[in-house]
Every structure is written in structure tokens, then in C-alpha cells.
Design brief:
It is a single chain. The protein is α+β, with helices and mostly antiparallel strands and 224 residues long. The chain is built from three helices and twelve strands; from the N terminus they run αββαβββββββαβββ. The chain has helices at 16-66, 93-96, 196-199; strands at residues 67-71, 86-90, 104-108, 122-129, 134-138, 141-144, 147-148, 176-177, 182-186, 202-203, 207-216, 222-223. Strands 1, 2, 3, 4, 9, 10, 11 and 12 form an eight-stranded antiparallel β-sheet that branches. A four-stranded antiparallel β-sheet has the order 7-6-5-8, with no helix packed on it.
């Protein structure tokens, strides 16, 4: 028979002090985990803020100095561009080279072409005559320096007539010399286009950029 010694201490039972220490350690570990999680969350928020901010800055720089998308709202450039098309404009082109005949350009709306509400801020047309050249029309055809201009981008049968010509006729535009620093622009859909025949040549400095790519609709994606 084994007697229990009333004075003996059960060393397997945890003391109050050791239990308190363990609880304190667990509390510290939990607090450390929460602190680490909070730091990680703050770091993630900061990283995403920097990333989104950088993306916005880059987008603004690209739009301001390099490329910009434009929506085509009218039929003035059919069949090359249709209503609803979206095009990309290169703003750097004419810093590297001169404007060329046949280029499609976006430019600031001339004062004579502004609507009553001033809502039309930009127009898109094709460059036809360059500084120092003579522009005229004859029997519906375009002449540059007295020589007929071939325009394969026009629909068959389209004629270039003087403004305010009657529906049954096609008045001629008298020879006009394009001033230095100006260009003459026309829409490809001549009967439906308000262009330099109405508001005169435009300043090269008013050009926003050269249209070089159609990005919408996707089935018509391609360079222009």
C-alpha cells in the first residue's frame, strides 16, 4: 500500500506564474500577428496607390504628348471613316516631318466652322493642298497648281464642288494660293463635308495630330 505524502508537491501541475507567462506569450504572439497583418495591409494599399497613380500619370502624358483616341461623329470622311469609328492620332508625327498631302488629320475647329454651342472642338479631314500651292476645282475635279489630282480614296462619282452650289450643278472653285503655314483640307465625302471650301485653309499649328490607326470596330482594325 502506498501512502500519499501530504507535504509532497505535484510537479506536473503548472504553477500560476508559468501559466501567466504562457498567456502573456500567447497574447504577444497574437498581437504581433495582428501588427504584421496591419503592416502588410498598409504596404499593399501604398503599393496599389503608387501603381494606380503612376498609371494615371503615364496615361495623361501619353494623351497629352503622344497619342489620343478620337470618335468619328459624322459622315464627312466616308468611305474612309464611318460614323462610330474610333481612331488613334499620333501627336508626334509633325514634330518629326512635314505635313504630307493625303494625310488624314485632326485639327482644332476653325472659328468659321464652330457651331452655335461651340461643342465641336475638333474636326477630321484629309490634307489636299500644301503651303504655296494653288488649289482649284474644275468640273468636279481637284487641281493642284493646275494639274488634276488623283484621289483613289473617293467613292466613284463623287465631285468636288464650290460651296452653295445648286443640287443640279457643280460650281468651280477659283484658283487659290495656300498661304505659308497653312494647309487646305477636304472631307472624303465631299457632298456632306464642311471643309476648307467653306472655312478656308487652316493653320498647321492648329493640327492636333495625324490619324494613323483605326481601333474600332475591331473587324476594321488597321492602319490608315
Amino acid at each position: 500500500m502506498t501512502d500519499l505524502d501530504p507535504g509532497a508537491v505535484d510537479t506536473t501541475a503548472p504553477s500560476f506564474e508559468s501559466q501567466t507567462a504562457k498567456d502573456h506569450a500567447r497574447s504577444e504572439a497574437a498581437g504581433s500577428k495582428r501588427s504584421d497583418k496591419a503592416r502588410k495591409t498598409r504596404r499593399t494599399i501604398i503599393e496599389w496607390t503608387i501603381l494606380i497613380g503612376s498609371a494615371l500619370v503615364i496615361a495623361i502624358l501619353i494623351k497629352t504628348f503622344l497619342f489620343q483616341a478620337f470618335y468619328i461623329p459624322s459622315e464627312s470622311m466616308k468611305p474612309t471613316l464611318n460614323v462610330g469609328d474610333r481612331v488613334l492620332v499620333n501627336k508626334v508625327s509633325y514634330r518629326l516631318h512635314d505635313v504630307n498631302r493625303g494625310d488624314i488629320v485632326v485639327f482644332e475647329t476653325p472659328p468659321k466652322a464652330k457651331d452655335a454651342n461651340g461643342e465641336i472642338k475638333d474636326l477630321v479631314k484629309r490634307v489636299i493642298a500644301l503651303p504655296g500651292e494653288s488649289f482649284s476645282t474644275r468640273s468636279g475635279g481637284v487641281y493642284i497648281n493646275g494639274r488634276a489630282l488623283k484621289e483613289p480614296y473617293l467613292q466613284r462619282g463623287v465631285r468636288t464642288c464650290a460651296p452653295n452650289t445648286s443640287a443640279t450643278g457643280c460650281g468651280d472653285v477659283a484658283p487659290t494660293t495656300i498661304p505659308a503655314g497653312d494647309i487646305l483640307v477636304l472631307g472624303d465625302n465631299r457632298p456632306a463635308s464642311k471643309d476648307s471650301r467653306f472655312f478656308g485653309p487652316i493653320k498647321e499649328s492648329s493640327i492636333v495630330g495625324r490619324v494613323f490607326l483605326r481601333i474600332w470596330p475591331l473587324n476594321d482594325l488597321g492602319f490608315l
